[in-house]
Amino acid sequence: MKKATILIAEDEVNLALLLERILKKEGYLVYTASDGVSAKSILEAKQIDLVLTDIKMPDMDGIELLKYIKKIDSSIEVIVMTAFATVDTAINALKLGAKDYIRKPFDIDEVISAVKKVQFEEAPDELGTYDFNSMLVTNSQKMQDLVKLIHKVANSNANIYIHGETGVGKELVAHAIHEISDRRGKPFIKVNCSALPETLLESELFGYEKGAFTGAFNRKLGRFELANGGTIFLDEIGDISPLIQLKLLRIIQQKELERLGGTQTISLDVRIITATNKSLDTLVHAGQFREDLYYRLNVIPLSVPPLRERREDMTSLIQNFIKISSDMYHTPYKEIEAEAMEVLLGYHWPGNVRELENIIERLLLISEGTVIKSSDLPPYFLHPEDEPSDGLGIYKDSAEEKIIRKALADTDGNITKAAEKLGISRRSLHRKINKYNLGS
Ligand SMILES: Nc1ncnc2c1ncn2[C@@H]1O[C@H](COP(=O)(O)OP(=O)(O)OP(=O)(O)O)[C@@H](O)[C@H]1O
């Protein structure tokens, strides 16, 4: 059963810490914000089920925050906390959709029982145990060996380094490890290290305090802090600068961090999974990647083989992707003509599973009738000499990813508006943003 995620918006630091401690003990995943603006940014970034908010906060009071929450997602429950004198405000909060209110000063049991009374809505695809077979197609011996290894190492806390060509499924493997480990139900936070310049990556990973630098108007929690208790997946780790390498090494050694410009030390219990399609070995030899960090990250190395070395997976992957795309686009399932299948099986797939997934999605949409034929294939499949120079073909980006990118661009990255535009819930949009790594 998925444990609910709670956000505490409270400017009295000691009280926030106390609440955080008790609720974590009860098994909830807890985030804290010391003002309304930080609360809003956590609500944008995370799937929150319940907000415990103080009424009086410096920049935005609890009532305003409540109105904001009910506007963006009415399924997020809110409990307000208020001093006795403002009980009228609390009653007003109930009228505005708050679930309950707690008078300050309160008893710990009172808080726990108010939280337990809330019925949390379950996200259907996060229920139950991780279904390996439906997430990860593994017919080939090579992939089955990898799955065995994943099961062996999932519950050790050791850091894992996944190597493999682009699009082979490294992220899927990282996620699978998290889901079968004891850390499931806790956050799995992904960061694409090549997507951001050094300073942005630094603040994204480690967070900062208000006033840490010009433009730091509010405290920002780093991804490491958000991943606390769970797993952080650092993709394209070979691209991080010497400064970030050093900071990462310190965090691994000390198991704690301080936000930029901060003095408070935050203890960390985060498993680190890294991945790259470059050779870290070569980067170490070339002096571009710290050897000491490499050994810390590479406690358990895993390698995901390229698709052309495990052709036994292809037929199942193709069927799997036809099914997923036909569900997504509400089009009927289509068969693949034998000749077309032969061409697909014989292709060398430089973009690996991602390329296969995108081609299948495209074929399903462009082919006429109920069967996909070889004439529907991109010409370079039949004439490899015409293959585009980047080797990944013209179908590199999936249609869905493009649509989501566009909706986010049209709405300046506003999740609520983008979700509305796409006609999907904020929850599904968050999942898709994670899937396509559009969050950083
Ligand atoms: N074995 C598999 N079964 C089902 N789907 C898969 C499998 N392997 C990969 N995929 C799908 O292929 C796509 C690419 O996978 P993923 O993003 O995990 O690759 P990656 O190696 O992390 O890529 P990159 O190197 O670009 O970061 C994803 O949509 C993923 O769901």
From TrEMBL:
Biological classification of the source: Bacteria, Bacillati, Bacillota, Clostridia, Eubacteriales
Residues found modified as 4-aspartylphosphate: 54
Organism field: Fusibacter bizertensis
Function: May play the central regulatory role in sporulation. It may be an element of the effector pathway responsible for the activation of sporulation genes in response to nutritional stress. Spo0A may act in concert with spo0H (a sigma factor) to control the expression of some genes that are critical to the sporulation process.
Response regulatory domain span: 5-119
Domain Sigma-54 factor interaction: from-to ranges: 136-365
Protein name: Stage 0 sporulation protein A homolog
The entry's keywords: ATP-binding, DNA-binding, Nucleotide-binding, Phosphoprotein, Transcription, Transcription regulation
Signal peptide: none
Pfam family, one: HTH_8
